[in-house]
Fold this sequence. Notes:
Helix content is about 15%, strand content about 30%.
Amino acid sequence: MISDNKKDLEKLHEQLEQENMGPLWSSIHELNTIEPKSKPVPYLWKSELIKKRLKEAEELLTVGDGADRRAVFLINPGMKDLEPVGWGGATQTLYAAVQAVKPGEVAPAHRHTTTALRFIIDGHGGQGRVNGERITFEPGDFLITPTWTWHDHTNIDDQEVIWMDCLDVPFTKFLATCFTEFHEKKQQDLLVEDDYSIKRYNGGMVRPVDDREEKIAPLGRYTWGMAKDGMDGLAQMEPDPYDGYAVEYINPTTGGDANDRIGSRMQRLEPGFKGKAHRHVHSTIYHIFEGEGYTVIEGERFDWSKGDFLVVPTWCWHEHVNTSDSEDAHLFSTNDLPIMEAFNFEVVEAYNDNNGHQKIERIFEPIMSD
Ligand code: GTQ
């Protein structure tokens, strides 16, 4: 029984709050949720808007001369009160940003315990140095700089280069586990020949014999061609009902995710593909690399096209559709599956009603650039 003396109960609750305590009897359902309740909400950022703001930043700051990086990060509206110091959070674990490097700029070398990866969106002169290796960046490439690996970036072309960054910032900030170290030099020294790790993995699924031992970043660059070949193979068969032809980037010495705490995928939705809905505990950030279509999340339709970013938070029903009848759609995505799996949290559920499709009840209106 809980007393019906509301006044005295409220007084006790206030008293507890002032004394930095709380009444479990009135908040137990907030603690023990029947199912996961995500603070981050389904959301979409348009490419044009992000690019416009990046362009404005180009006028205002120079990378390597005052600014360490030029990147605009995504803040999930549901995360706003969780991240009062401005470090961004697209989901409760993952941070994403779009970074621009102008010709000749050098983003200085550093390393951090937060884990990082990049997906090249546009431009041809991008280069990175990772633990002493110079790595070429081309559009469609996926690059990793896992925990505590030195990294700096530059652009040797005459056109700007832009890419997506994804880091586990919200996760490491919440745990307060981030250490960062700045390199004494702006660009770290080259210790091995250029594209060393790419040459070592030229064969794809055969590895140099000394990589029997586990390494954190045996391969630094996964080219668009590798992902494309993988999807081309799958495309000779029936697509997965939820994700079409989807591959994940793996560490060839462990078979696990390429990046230690972030999962990454590339998926092809063939023309007219209409995926079925499911939900899972892990959260996902999608970058539309090519194509157009929409994703229905919890009954809301999110229309997307090339360059947009979309978030599917924890435990939200979602299904993807390619609206083109002639062009493939390619979605790059990052997820927190490695974190969920490490703690046995992952659960997947298929949507069984209505032949696997949600009813579209709302259409999301993104903020557009003016
Ligand atoms: O390029 O090293 O978007 O350290 C956030 C933190 C990019 C980077 C980000 C970083 C970087």
